[in-house]
Each structure stands twice: as structure tokens, then as C-alpha cells.
Design goal:
Layout: E1 2-8, E2 11-18, E3 21-26, H1 32-42, E4 47-48, H2 52-65, H3 84-92, E5 102-103, H4 104-110, H5 117-125, E6 138-139, H6 152-161
Parallel strand pairs: 1-4, 5-6
Antiparallel strand pairs: 1-2, 2-3
Helix pairs in contact: 4-5
């Protein structure tokens, strides 16, 4: 298992990956030591490396955090240990264009059951691929933001980056 650090104005973030694909995206932290401690807390045996596999993704993440519209489709994600339902929820996020919002109910309906909006929310809370699978673009039907796996502060930041919130 490897990791690569990407840089943003908010601090460094990390891409965790192996030869099967991207395992996790860690949102930016205050400084390099904080992000490395977080990585080591989650993964015992992980080495820093920048391979061709993640160099394109690293550049895309850095551009995204600078406010550029980025297409993350084609990123090879490894869904190890993720239930079939959660995987379908996460894959459904690819249908939400940059700069647009959809609701938990909308995504549940896309999956064939509008009554599963809360289950969709729970699945999104465990999204290990924030930004590249844009769960921050999902809000409650009443217009409230709802939760985000990295906290509401990050959800607001990401929505500002995409100019959804002014």
C-alpha cells in the first residue's frame, strides 16, 4: 500500500492506493505531519511514493482545489470491503455534474427506491473517495446541506470551490 501527498491552499491531502486502484482520498489537513499521522493511524504498512498511477490524479486534485473544473471519471477506484448498496450509491454520484446539487432522495430514486434516502445518506457518510466521488453535491430535500464525512466545514468549502455557494 502506498500514499502520495497532494498540495492545496488548505494544506496537504493524501491519496492512498495500491496496484488495484485508489483505496482512499484524505482531505487536506493543516500540515504535512498531521496528514502523515492520520495516514499512519489508518494504515500500518504504507509507504510514500508517487507512481504514474496517481500522478494524474494528484494533479487533478490540486487543480480542483484551485477552483478548476476537473473530470475525475476514469479514476481507477478499488471498492474493497464496500457493500454492493454503498458501491451503487457512490457510483451514482458520477451523474451529478460539477457545480450542481442533487438531493439524497434524488439519488435514492436513481437507485430505484425513493424511501431509501436515509440509507443513501449513511452510505455517503462512509465515502472513502471524497471529491472524486462528489458526495458534497448531495443535500437534503428541504435545501439544508446535510452531513459530510469530513465535516460540514469541508462540505461548505467544496461547494464554494465549485461556486455553488457564494
Amino acid at each position: 500500500m502506498n500514499f502520495s501527498i497532494y498540495s492545496t491552499d488548505f494544506g496537504p491531502g493524501a491519496i492512498i492506493y495500491d496496484d488495484r486502484g485508489i483505496r482512499r482520498i484524505l482531505m487536506p489537513e493543516e500540515n504535512i505531519s498531521t496528514i502523515v499521522k492520520k495516514i499512519r493511524k489508518i494504515y500500518d504498512n504504507v509507504e510514500e511514493e508517487l507512481s504514474n498511477q496517481v500522478s494524474v490524479l494528484k494533479k487533478k486534485l490540486e487543480e480542483y482545489f484551485r477552483g478548476k473544473k476537473v473530470d475525475f471519471s476514469g479514476t481507477r477506484i478499488y471498492f474493497n470491503g464496500i457493500s454492493a448498496f454503498t458501491k451503487s450509491v457512490l457510483n451514482g454520484l458520477n451523474e451529478i455534474p460539477y457545480g450542481e446539487l442533487k438531493t439524497y432522495k434524488w439519488l435514492a430514486e436513481k437507485l430505484g427506491n425513493s424511501g431509501k434516502a436515509r440509507a443513501v445518506g449513511r452510505a455517503l457518510h462512509s465515502n472513502p473517495f471524497p471529491v472524486i466521488l462528489p458526495c458534497h453535491r448531495i443535500i437534503k430535500s428541504g435545501g439544508e446541506l446535510g452531513g459530510f464525512s469530513s465535516g460540514t466545514k469541508w462540505k461548505v468549502r467544496l461547494l464554494h470551490i465549485e461556486k455553488i455557494l457564494k
